[in-house]
Amino acid sequence: MMLYLPDEEATLAFAARLQTTLPPGYVVFLHGNLGAGKTTLVRGYLRAAGYRGTVKSPTYTLVEEYPLADRTVYHFDLYRLNDPEELEWMGIRDYFRPDSLCFVEWPEKGEGFLPPPDLEINLEPENTGRRLRISPNPF
Q1: Which segments of the chain have a pLDDT < 50?
Q2: DSSP letters along 97-130, please?
Q3: How much is the pTM?
Q4: Cα–Cα distance for residue pair 42/55, rounded to 1 Å
Q5: DSSP, res 23
Q6: By the 8 A CB rule, do 72 and 99 touch?
Q7: What is the pLDDT of residues 12-42, one digit of tens each?
Q8: What one-character DSSP code corresponds to residue 39?
């Protein structure tokens, strides 16, 4: 599926709709260049789920944790990862549980240490907005 999201508000609205469809246990890979809207999408998801705290990019921390009533959301940003094996040292497998939802930015940096995604979202800047392509994992 492809959509054009003309501005940040449209990205937040899409994320709110996404929030009603993703069950606990899902893994979502987020693809796109710096500034494409990946963290904005996660923030929109969390706001729609009722989270009221600060939502920031985990560029330097690698992961941010957001506890919700029925699940914990983990937001990973692997952009600064030097070696995928670093994920093993941080206990990456412990985050991917049936009661969590994981958004992973720059998943190609963790290849071989991440579970397969249930959903992949690609965001590309276009004009003043962004083009969103969403695809479920066929396996």
Answers
A1: none
A2: -TTEEEEEESGGGGTTTSPPPSEEEEEEEETTEE
A3: 0.91
A4: 8
A5: P
A6: yes
A7: 999 999 999 999 999 999 999 887 889 999 9
A8: H
